[in-house]
Amino acid sequence: MMTSHYSLVCTACGATYDGEPGRLTCDADHEPALLRARYASRQLHVDQQRGGLFRFRDWLPICRELGTASGPRTFVSEHLGPLLGLDHLVIVFNGYWPERGAETWTTSFKELEAATAAARYPAGHRQTMVVASAGNTARAFAHVYSADGSPVCLVVPERRLGSLWSLGPLSDDVELVAVTGDSDYFDAIRLAGSLCQQPGFFPEGGALNVARRDGMGTTVLSGATLLGRIPDHYFQAVGSGTGGIAAWEANLRLIEDGRFGTTRMQLHLAQNVPFTPMVDAWQQGLPEIPDYDEADLKRRLNGITAKVLSNRRPAYAIRGGLFDALQESQGKMYAVTNQEASSASLLFEHAEGIDINAESAVATAALMQAVARGTVRRRETILLNITGGGERRLRRDQPGIQPIPVTRRVALVDVGCQSCLRSLAESLRVAAAE
User: Does pTM top 0.90 for this prediction?
Assistant: First the structure.
């Protein structure tokens, strides 16, 4: 068991709290704001004896380590970089790629979040964490929590069930609730939030959870330790914006460390056309996401291939959130069409030899846009976060992949029904006790 080695600091008022696992917000009466972890070790100590995520454990808000945690694999691109005319393109790969030693079995960097979220709580914690997801996050939490033996309830839109799979049977601690009808990620978030009000359940927290952010931030730590310096540019596709915030927070810690330089890494973040609420807000100079007509919003959501980038309520306007990170890093946002993403996916696989998911293709297409515009220069160091890849390769190598079974289904019209919610909570409690 690790002793407490971090505190939580409010980005709005500076209030400081002990590193208690369940804290997500500040107690003070002010605008919504993220808490940020402050670690006792101001310099990054990488434990080379450990593989995976927990080699960065001094900068993770955890009280224990999980034996199954994978981690990002980072390398200097020898093929894609030269094709794009870049001398120092570094790829941080999260997924399945045996030749690179990448064994993120769910093929998504959401596994980094799931592992740190679980490790923030002591072993044997028996309340049920509730997680809303559009696909990748649920798959990652199912894998990690099943192996760890911790209870978790995953809430997803029914139309995203096809993206929920596992390498084998999961433990009974994993419950999957599907919202039926014309539901989307926002409906899953609403149901998950209501379920957390019931006894025995608690929220994972999304962007408010420092464990999720700092788990994802290890992608930047991995890139900086390979380079020996903070990269000049960072590219990633975003849905909730949490990954972009995490990258910026890791950058700030590396500056404070003092051994990686003082570069304020420029964030280059992308969304999939036509669903681009953060791109629209940023390019208009708005500190908040604009309102959309419901019918128009549904049309936009249905029009994207990168379905997990479909968060209607991203962590954009909150203090310490994505708007602040973009301002402080002088960041840029990119709107990527489905065709651009498809072309980028083919190029990456041709150059590097591995398939990537739709979100990673959006990030790669954004990098291609930046190169075409002269936004990034040949000699600058660029970190491209491939947030997921190798699923097609994994399916070839692991024929036993199977769908994650649904525990309960909830009709979209019943999401706001309190009696339906109580019935759902009770049925989940009974199932967990059996």
Answer: yes
